[in-house]
């Protein structure tokens, strides 16, 4: 005979289990949907659709402005103007907090030695391929200061050399101190730069540079070498355009900070004919959009437009 009470108890138990299983299934479905939404969510939203840049007018800023215009994935993004130091500080803070961030970056730069970073692929090639950093001198420097001209013309080093100086500066050394340490530890290379140059007694020479960590390192190294040959060296920090203008107009004797063929292309077109181009002092430089390796994007096209 059917036991009514037992039947009700069994039915209640069955319904309870069904509801529990349904709830669990619903949660799993919700988790799956949420996970899918998260994995497909916009990295850009977490970064407020902002790219942390450097000084306005820099070539990498112009390239990034073009990228925002040309890439559908960057529609609605904003390029934030700052400075190379502010950019590096913002990058460091984001990494410390394990948050996503995207910056305008370049190598050589000490941040690649300190952090695990990657360039976002640039399928449209707006940032170009590898660049060279070149030396420029004012017209007439070879006749006026032949020894300095010889040293500047023969100055060539590698990204690894530059990184060593930058890292020491970033760790707290003054630029002139780090440069002097590097010069003292690389006498063979310095002898190649000074080969054929005569020592002088207190001749003045001025070097212009832009306040990028890479150019602070290279300019201070060259200054130390010139000082060791008897020159009284004056260093003048300028923005990129003013640096080219200073050398082209003879207000500065030289610079070792021309990034080509992309970054300073416009400045070379405008002022290149009124200065002497001595050629690359470093090969294998690169610019582009840089993110910490934990950011789930490998290409500019992996980003999402602002909604």
From TrEMBL:
Its main location: membrane. Residues 42-185, 204-304 form the ABC-type glycine betaine transport system substrate-binding domain. This is Glycine/betaine ABC transporter. Residues 1-22 form the signal peptide. Gene3D superfamilies: Dipeptide-binding Protein, Domain 3, Glycine betaine-binding periplasmic protein, domain 2. Keywords: Cell membrane, Membrane, Signal, Transport. GO terms for cellular component: ATP-binding cassette (ABC) transporter complex. PROSITE patterns: PROKAR_LIPOPROTEIN (PS51257). Coiled coil: none annotated. It is found in: Cell membrane. It comes from Guptibacillus hwajinpoensis. GO terms for biological process: choline transport; glycine betaine transport. The keyword Cell division does not apply. The keyword Signal applies. InterPro entries: ABC_Gly_betaine_transp_sub-bd (IPR007210). GO terms for molecular function: amine transmembrane transporter activity; carnitine transmembrane transporter activity.
